[in-house]
Amino acid sequence: MSGPSISPSRSPIGKGTTRVTEVYSPESGSHPTTRLSQIRESIREPAAEFLGVMVFVMFGNGVLCQTQLSRNASVAATTFGDYLSVCFGFAVGLALGAWVTGGYSQGHINPAVTIAMATFRRDFPWRKVPGYILGQVLGGLCGAAVIYGNYIHAIDLVEGGRDIRTVPGTAGLFGTYALPYMTAASAWFQEFLGTAIILIVVCALGDVRNRNAPPGLAPFVLFIMMLGISAALGMQTGFAMNPARDLGPRLLTAMVGYGAPVFTFRNQYWLWCPILAPIVGALGTSSVSSTPIALAGVANGTSISISISMSIPLPVGTFLYDLVFYGGADSILSKVYVMLSSPR
């Protein structure tokens, strides 16, 4: 069987000059290196993050618009969906977003996860962080823009006109806003509680002594996890847990007429709850255990790694799992046990 048939050929250009060209054969399965291919390679990972977050936000914001806007009699005679529909929409979006990006960018789909990986993982350099985060936020913005354009007439009917936009009101169809009775501490704890449970599940999936998800089913595990956490604990804050999922759509709403109130709402709620809490939480979580928060999968015969697309506000989930189950050497508790048991 012959090998790759991409071979150089020489053709005269002028006196003493030879041009080297590459002859490509479809049998080889690869393409010659070109400037375009180099550009594609350099932006492939950020572009994958862009697409993953865009898919996630389109499903999430889309189901919110359909269920909430259809409650208005001027939009629809009957309601299309309920809160369970919202839970399913976000769960499907997360699973598909992770599947789309997993083979190219490890499926972070979350700036908090990206920052944590750069901080605590040697195989993910800091030079990739700006591109990843830019792709993620732009993906959230574009995903929200597609859904806003799709439902703009229904939004006009609910608001009472194209020049009327209210915050939270219909702005809550895109960004996250805590319910009025929630205090700052309550909103923070809401994010803490739900995502601590998420981390316990993730730790179990990453524990080789436990039962790992079968190859290729990691997105389905993410689906189940997102469905459960949103159904049980998502009502009061909108379960952001992802800066790009909130900031991208929030930027979109600021651009299309909602204005500054999307940022000034409740003393910059957008900053300290859906952005800083996930980032600080992801860093705190990663510092507790050096085990990569990733789920192995297989696509087209190629091993991929799909990093968990949520972020954890405090390391309680890891602590509880390590305290009761995990015995790996990478656990901080294992290191403490070794220090205490070593002879002095």
UniProtKB/TrEMBL annotation:
It comes from the Eukaryota. It comes from Ganoderma boninense. It is found in: Membrane. Belongs to the MIP/aquaporin (TC 1.A.8) family. SUPFAM superfamilies: Aquaporin-like (SSF81338). It is a multi-pass membrane protein. The chain crosses the membrane at residues 50-69, 81-100, 131-152, 187-208, 220-241, 269-286. This is A necrosis toxin (Ptr necrosis toxin) (ToxA) (Toxin A). It catalyses: H2O(in) = H2O(out). The keyword Transmembrane helix applies. Residues 1-36 are annotated as: Disordered. InterPro entries: Aquaporin-like, MIP, MIP/Aquaporin, MIP_CS. One of its GO terms (cellular component) is plasma membrane. PANTHER family: AQUAPORIN OR AQUAGLYCEROPORIN RELATED, AQUAPORIN-9. The keyword Transmembrane applies. The gene is P78737. Residues 27-36 have a biased composition (Polar residues). Keywords: Membrane, Repeat, Transmembrane, Transmembrane helix, Transport. One of its GO terms (molecular function) is water channel activity. Residues 1-14 have a biased composition (Low complexity). Gene3D superfamilies: Glycerol uptake facilitator protein.
